[in-house]
Amino acid sequence: MIELTVYNRSGKEVDKISVDEAALGGAVRYGLLKQAIVMHQANQRVGTVQTKSRGMVAGSDKKLYRQKGTGNARMGNRRTGIRVGGGMIFGKVPRDFRQRMPRKQKRLARDSAVLAKLRKNSVVVVDGLAFDKPQTKDFAGILKNLKIDRSCLVAIPQHDENIYKSARNVPKVAVLPVADLNAGDICTHQRMLFTKDALVAFLDREAGSES
Q1: Phi/psi of residue 191, each to 5°?
Q2: Fewer Cβ neighbours under 10 Å: the N or C end of the chain?
Q3: What is the pLDDT of residue 211?
Q4: What's the pLDDT at 198?
């Protein structure tokens, strides 16, 4: 069991919560975790780059001069890739870099990522993050009170527009509902901040998926 301290928004201890490692697989599956991270990074690639091949460049396709007898190196048409303004040899074309993983593997990789953060003491739990309206200054103050000064992924029970807008201008901070957590986003941030309700919902979800 891993015991976590629950803090209030001022950074004071208010409660304790225990996490059973068995609910997160009991071990960190590093091979699966790497596969999930590579997939996450590949899926962020746009893949719309394109260069003109010789068939796309404007110009005559007639040979510039005869093959022999001119004293010059042999030369093809104006659109050849070895001339300035010609087409690109083996030019880049739009492509899809997306990768896929089975749903069960993605879930196991996500659990491994959370377990790895827990074992490194990189998870902080706060009792609540509710805002009446977007307040970036207040949100940044909460992070300071919790001594979070590095990149952080904030996990909340469900989408909350006020929390999202409060955090979007804070550098290196991302907000995700528990249902959208994934290994890629977890591993690209150095710390994780769970609200208490979000952590309970996440663990209950795991217990429900095992039964």
Answers
A1: -125, 160
A2: C
A3: 42
A4: 93
Task: Assign 3-class secondary structure to the chain.
Answer: CEEEEEECCCCCEEEEEEECHHHHCCCCCHHHHHHHHHHHHHHCCCCCCCCCCCCCCCCCCCCCCCCCCCCCCCCCCCCCCCCCCCCCCCCCCCCCCCCCCCHHHHHHHHHHHHHHHHHCCCEEEECCCCCCCCCHHHHHHHHHHCCCCCCEEEEECCCCHHHHHHHCCCCCEEEEEHHHCCHHHHHCCCEEEEEHHHHHHHHHHHHHHHC
Amino acid at 114: V
Give me the residue spans of the domains in the chain.
2-43+99-210, 46-96
The CATH superfamily assigned to 2-43+99-210 is: Ribosomal protein L4/L1 (3.40.1370.10)
- The whole-model pTM stands at 0.79
Strands 13-19 and 2-7: antiparallel
Contact between 1 and 20 (Cβ < 8 Å): yes
pLDDT tens digit sequence for 116-155: 999 999 999 999 888 999 999 999 999 999 999 889 999 9
Residues 114, 120, 121, CA angle at the centre, nearest 5°? 90
Instruction: Show the low-confidence residues of the chain (pLDDT under 50).
Output: 211
